Amino acid sequence: MTPPISSKRLIITLLLGLYFCGGLALAVWRPTIAIAQVDTADLFYRFNGEHIPLVVKENAIAVAFQDQPPSRSVSPTPLYQQLQNDLNAASSRGSGGVTVQPVGTSYAIATLPAGSRSGLRDLRPRLQQPYVETTLAVVSRADQNEQILLPNEIIVSFAANTSASEQQQILAAQGLELIRPLRFTENRVLARLRTLDRETAVLTAAEALNQADGVRSATPNFIPVRSPLDRLDSELTVSERSIAQSTPGNASALAWHLDSAAMASGRNNTGVKAPGAWALGSRGGGVTVAVIDALIQWDHPALVNSIYQLPPGVSGLPGESRGWDFVGNDSETRVEAAELSVLRPLFQSTFTLSDGEFLRQHSAMAADIQRNEPGLSEREIAAAIRRVIRARVAGEFHGTTVSGVVGAAGTDHSRLIGVAPEATLLPVRVCALFRGCPSVNIVEGIGYAAVRGADIINLSLGGIMPSTETADVITEVLAAHPNLIIVAASGNSDIDRVGFPAGLRDVISVGASTRQGTRASYSNYGPGLTLMAPGGDMRAGLEGGILSTSGTGSDLFWQGITTPAQPWPPAQDPRGNYVWTQGTSFASPAVAGVVALMLSADPERRLNRDRIIALLEAASSHAALTLTPQERELYRVLRDRSATPPTENELHYFLGSGLVDAEQAVRLVQASVK
C-alpha cells in the first residue's frame, strides 16, 4: 500500500539515516568495566509474561563515554565525532569506514560498513579510547529493524509492602545492587549487576528476577534508537519541492488540520473542526495537557504563554518551575549547551559552507552516496545531505512540534494556533537527542504528570519497546486518577496492529489521516485503533503535512550566521520557528487537544474518563474518509481467512470510529452536563 519509492532516493535516505541515527543521554550511573563479551544464544526479555526474542547486531556496538569535566562540557569536537575520527585514523585491514552515530551526548553506536570482513573482533580493541568508559551490546527484536542499547540497568517492580531492606536482600541474592528508587511510583527501583561478565548479562539477570519471590516484574532499561527505516517517509519528503505559497505571517491559514473547509475544493472537511468548537466557547481553558516527549522549547513565542508553572506552595523537584527533564534530571526541557554542541555545527554547516567544503566535512556520507549513485553531481549530493541534516535537526524538537499541535497560543496573525489554544501545557522530557526513550524515563514521566495534576497525557511514542513497567504504571495512574485521559500515537509502521503503548486498555489510540481524507500510508491500523486525526502526507508537497512549532528559530542556532532570505524545507519561515511534519505523532496531540476542548466544556468534571471517551468516539465519523481499493481487498482477504471478522467492518479496521470532530464532541459534552 505504500507508494513506490525511487531507488535513488531510497539509497540516499538510508545512507544519511545510518549516519544520523541516534538515541539519548541518561544522567544515571554507568559502571567502569572492561570491555565485556557477548553471548548471542537464546536472548529474550518478558513483556507481561510473554517471551520477546532478541538478537545481537553483528555489525554494531555501542559505547558509553566517560563523564567529561566542566571545561569540556561543550567540546569543539563532540565525542561521537572524535571516536569516528580515531577509529578510522587507526583503521586496520578490512575494518575502515566505521560510522559512529551519536546517541544523545553520552552514548554512541559504532557501525561497520556492509560486507566488512573483520566483524566486531578487530573493532573492539580500538574502542578502548581514554574518553570511552565501556561498551554496550546493540540488540533488536527478532522481527524488527531497530537498534536498542543494552546498559547495565534493570527496572525492578517489587510486591506491595516489600520493605527497603527486603528489596536490598532480593537484589543482593541475584547479584545486583540498588542505583536508586524510582520517583512518582511505588515499589520500583533501578538496579545494576555488580559484575557484568558479558554485555547481555542483564537479560539473564532480569529473567532470574522475574522468577524471584517478592518481585512483580523486572525489565532491562532498554535504550531504543530509531532505525533509519523508521524515518524513511518523512525524510523522503525533504526534497526540491517548493514550500506552500504563503508568508510566515499567514501560517495559521495553512493549518488545514484545524479546519480544511476553506481549502477543501468541494471535498469534505478533513480537519478536526476546531474553530467550530471555539465558537461554542470551548478553547481548552482550565485543562492541563502533559506532553511526554523529546525537546520542548517552551520559550517559543507561540508556546511561552501556555506553559505550566509549578503553583506556589507546591514542593517540587530541585529547581522545578516549568515541567521536568528526566533525561538530564533537571528543570530544563529545552536544548542545553552540550546538546547544542552536537546540533548547531551540523545545522550551521548546511548554510555556511560551499558545496566543496560541505562535502569534505561530510566526506563519509558523500562517498557512500557517490558509490551507490555515481551519476549524481557534487551539487546534488551536497543538496541531499543539506536537506536531511536540516530536517533531522528540526526533528529533534519533536516535543516542541507536538506541543504546538495541542495548544500553540498565537496572539496575532503571525503565530500558529493549536487545537486547544487556552490549554496549559506541562513539558515532560523523557527522550534525549534522536528521540531514544528509555523505559525508566517514561515510567517516571507518566507518574510525574499524574502527580502534577495533568488532565490529559499525550504519548507520541508509538515506536518504543513494549515494557511491563510502562504498561503497569499506566494502569496504576489511570486507577488512581479516574478522570485522567491518556492519548497515544498508533505508530508509523503501516502494520495491522497499533504500537505500544497505544494498544493498552483505556488508552486512546490515534491513527493518522491525510488532507485528502485517506489513511496516511504509514499509519498503523487494525484492532485496538480508536479513531483518526490529521497526521499529514507530504509526498505531494510539504503543505500536505502538519504545520506546527519548532525550535531552530532560536537565536542559539543562528549565532554568527545570516538568516537565509527564503524558507528551507521543512521550515515554513526562514529561521524554522514553524515546520511541516507528518506522522501519528501529530495526530495524537490533535486528539489530546480535542479532549482538552471537551473537558473545558465540563469544568466541574461531571463526566468521567469512560464517558468522555465514549462521546469522543460518538462524535467521530467516517463521512470525510475513504478507503483505497488495496485496503478494501486486504480486509476481504483477512475476513475470508478467519471465521471471526478482524473488526466490526472494514472502515473500523483501518479507521477506527473515524475522523475526530471537535465541534460535535463539544456539543455532546455540553448536552451531557446540562
| CATH topology tier name of the largest domain | Rossmann fold
The tally of domains stands at: 4
Mean pLDDT: 86
Strand content is 15-25%
Low-confidence stretches: 1-37, 227-249
| Shape descriptor | globular
CATH superfamily of the largest domain: Peptidase S8/S53 domain
Radius of gyration: 24 Å
Second CATH tier, the architecture of the largest domain: 3-Layer(aba) Sandwich
- Helix tally equals 19
Question: What is the helix content?
Answer: 25-40%
Structure summary:
With 674 residues, the protein is of the alpha/beta class. It is built from 19 helices and 21 strands.
Describe this structure as you would to a colleague.
The chain is an alpha/beta fold. The protein has four domains: 31-150, Alpha-Beta Plaits (2-Layer Sandwich), CATH 3.30.70; 154-220, 2-Layer Sandwich (Alpha-Beta Plaits); 248-336 and 398-672, Peptidase S8/S53 domain (Rossmann fold); 339-392, no CATH class. Helices cover 31% and strands 16% of the residues. It contains 19 helices and 21 strands. The protein has helices at 7-20, 79-89, 120-126, 164-173, 201-210, 232-236, 274-279, 337-352, 355-361, 363-372, 378-395, 398-407, 439-451, 468-480, 584-600, 609-619, 629-641, 650-655, 662-672; strands at 43-47, 50-56, 60-65, 99-103, 107-111, 132-141, 147-150, 154-158, 176-181, 188-193, 215-220, 223-225, 288-293, 324-325, 424-429, 456-459, 485-489, 507-513, 531-534, 546-549, 578-581. The strands form four sheets. Strands 1, 2, 3, 4, 5, 6, 7 and 12 form an eight-stranded antiparallel beta sheet that branches. The longest helix is centred in the middle third of the chain and has 18 residues, at 378-395. The radius of gyration is 24 Å and the shape is globular. 54% of the residues are buried.
